[in-house]
């Protein structure tokens, strides 16, 4: 049995990573492939049965994973993200949630043919959207700005609200004889306990980190321990208040500015990817064959009403007077995927209803999973094309950000612009930037140490980053930051100078991004060649004049990038030289006396 559990965990991790990779390669949110992988492993092939393997430990483990995901989402969002979202997010959490609750309950009563008690419970479950789905989709499609902030804020903050609402609807309708007191009072008490524990946890972490009571290597695990402890303690004091606690803790910790939470955020981001990958595979695997067979026209009609009527009405009411454009409202109306919180809550209360002998309780699971699958597929597959069509996501290629405005960096950026690639040069030297602007190149003055410089340059929407300053140390510092945003594949740097005569001054390999052009193509050498009259030239590769013939004719030329027949531009890196094919354009730095 132990070996089976270990094998299952390994299989889930591998499947999760594989789905993430497929999504990355196809530029489709990985949630789609994670859910499909779970369905394939579970009800389709029967290879994975999470309930049989993990037993009663499954839901506690899922709860802890969701708590960490919520904390990471709140920490990354922060109070700044909530402010950026504006009043719209608060309307979505109040008026919008009420509209969703009422609309979903009415649709369930009429379409699913269940009594009002079950219809109201199902509606409470489906109030949530969830950061487990919204966050990865927003990141995968490259959505930025106010709409992204609204979606992420709503997804992060609605999860504890939906979970608590479900608890109290269940208690009021199905356990009314066992509880007394006001439902409103219970809700306020739950939020009060959760918020109090969350603020206390954030205060404890702030104190420990600010006074250096923990060594740096224990910051991440210490934070994780406090998050899990706050979640557990809060739930012990008040059922379902733990989600409120971790959400408040994340926002409060991000709101302060005296203690850096960057390393903690990086660690929790890794856990988030791991947990989301695992949870969605388990989610798909938990869907039984019987549940799939129960997905009949009623469930599909219920899904359509939620997507076509309820969500647009929720957004319409919540965005009145918000100043959002029609395109932004439409995108919000279409994007409301449900995730792991809805699945786990529905499964939990379905078990309780079945044990209590409530007729038709299986509808809670079948309808919820229909909505999860439908909204995940809709948002995962349609969000990017819709965002591009509505003008919320750039449809063209992103810019290449060039750090440095020295002569070669300027000529290189100009060559990219000449082939239709947008560029932006960053430098602290206003004189260098003036020369670049005279060539018609977009520029940004500022230091790479400043977050404002990166934001103004548009690093989040960039296609690539190239470090070409005359300081190897600044290049190394910049590429590390750029790699955190774009990934190492899209971050490049010229070869560092070789200083054999200076002991201990050569940069370590780990500080250098992908090396451009050639191992000896330093900025000094490239600038010297420009000063000697070399120029950047473009050559069309043909069947009669291929790459080999070009190399024979231009023996000293330094290849810079290749433009494919379809207009794709590939920078030439030492670790993966791009061999041009017939029809491509090869751009090189070559002697002025050589023809092209």
Mean pLDDT: 80
Number of helices: 23
What helical percentage do the residues reach?
A: 55-70%
Q: What distance separates the N and C termini? A: 69 Å
**Count of β-strands:** 10
* Outline type: elongated
Radius of gyration: 28 Å
Q: Tell me the major beta sheet.
A: 6 strands, parallel
Order of strands side by side in the largest beta sheet? 3-2-1-4-5-6
Extract low-pLDDT stretches. 500-505
**CATH class designation of the largest domain:** Mainly Alpha
Strand percent estimate = 5-15%
Task: Decide which structural class fits the backbone.
Answer: alpha/beta
Quaternary structure of the protein? single chain
Number of discrete domains:
2
Q: Which CATH architecture of the largest domain would you pick?
A: Up-down Bundle
- The CATH topology label of the largest domain is Na+/H+ antiporter like fold
């Amino acid at each position: 049995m132990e070996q089976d559990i270990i094998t299952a965990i390994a299989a889930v991790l591998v499947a999760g990573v594989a789905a993430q990779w497929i999504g990355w390669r196809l530029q489709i949110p990985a949630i789609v492939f994670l859910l499909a992988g779970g369905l394939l492993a579970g009800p389709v092939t029967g290879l994975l049965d999470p309930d049989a393997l993990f037993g009663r430990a499954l839901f506690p483990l899922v709860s802890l994973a969701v708590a960490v995901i919520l904390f990471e989402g709140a920490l990354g969002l922060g109070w700044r993200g909530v402010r950026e979202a504006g009043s719209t997010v608060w309307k979505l959490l109040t008026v919008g949630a009420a509209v969703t609750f009422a609309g979903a309950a009415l649709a369930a009563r009429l379409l699913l043919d269940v009594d009002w008690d079950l219809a109201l419970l199902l509606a409470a479950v489906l109030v949530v959207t969830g950061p487990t789905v919204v966050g990865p989709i927003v990141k995968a499609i490259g959505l930025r700005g106010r709409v992204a902030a609204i979606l992420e804020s709503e997804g992060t903050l609605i999860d504890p609200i939906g979970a608590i609402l479900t608890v109290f609807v269940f208690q009021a309708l199905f356990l009314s004889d066992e509880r007394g007191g006001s439902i409103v009072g219970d809700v306020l008490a739950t939020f009060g306990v959760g918020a109090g524990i969350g603020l206390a946890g954030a205060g404890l972490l702030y104190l420990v980190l600010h006074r250096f009571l923990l060594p740096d290597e224990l910051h991440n695990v210490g934070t994780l321990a406090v998050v899990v402890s706050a979640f557990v303690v809060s739930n012990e004091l008040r059922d379902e208040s733990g989600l409120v606690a971790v959400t408040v803790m994340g926002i409060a910790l991000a709101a302060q500015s005296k203690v850096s939470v960057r390393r903690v955020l990086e660690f929790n981001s890794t856990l988030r990817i791991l947990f989301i990958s695992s949870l969605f595979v388990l989610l798909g695997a938990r869907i039984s064959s019987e549940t799939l067979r129960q997905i009949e026209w009623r469930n599909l009609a219920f899904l359509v009403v939620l997507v076509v009527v309820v969500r647009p009405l929720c957004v319409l009411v919540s965005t009145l007077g918000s100043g959002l454009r029609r395109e932004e409202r439409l995108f919000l109306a279409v994007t409301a995927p449900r995730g792991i919180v809805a699945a786990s809550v529905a499964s939990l209360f379905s078990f309780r209803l079945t044990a209590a002998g409530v007729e038709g309780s299986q509808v809670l699971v079948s309808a919820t999973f229909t909505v999860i699958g439908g909204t995940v597929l809709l948002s995962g597959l349609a969000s990017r094309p819709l965002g591009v069509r509505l003008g919320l996501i750039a449809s063209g290629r992103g810019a290449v950000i060039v750090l440095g405005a020295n002569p070669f960096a300027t000529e290189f950026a100009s060559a990219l612009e000449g082939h239709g690639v947008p560029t932006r040069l960053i430098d602290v030297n206003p004189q260098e930037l003036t020369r670049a602007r005279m060539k018609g190149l977009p520029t940004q003055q500022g230091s790479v140490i400043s977050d404002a410089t990166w934001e103004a340059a548009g690093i989040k929407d960039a296609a690539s980053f190239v470090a070409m300053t005359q300081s190897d140390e600044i290049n190394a510092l910049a590429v590390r930051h750029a790699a955190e945003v774009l990934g190492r594949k899209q971050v490049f740097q010229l070869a560092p100078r070789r200083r054999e005569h200076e002991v201990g001054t050569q940069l370590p390999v780990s500080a250098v991004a992908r090396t451009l052009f050639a191992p000896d193509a330093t900025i000094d050498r490239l600038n010297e060649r420009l000063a000697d009259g070399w120029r950047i030239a473009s050559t069309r590769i043909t069947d009669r004049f291929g790459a080999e013939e070009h190399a024979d004719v231009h023996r000293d030329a330094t290849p810079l990038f290749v433009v494919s027949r379809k207009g794709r531009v590939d920078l030439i890196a030492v670790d993966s030289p791009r061999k041009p094919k017939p029809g491509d354009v090869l751009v090189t730095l070559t002697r002025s006396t050589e023809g092209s």
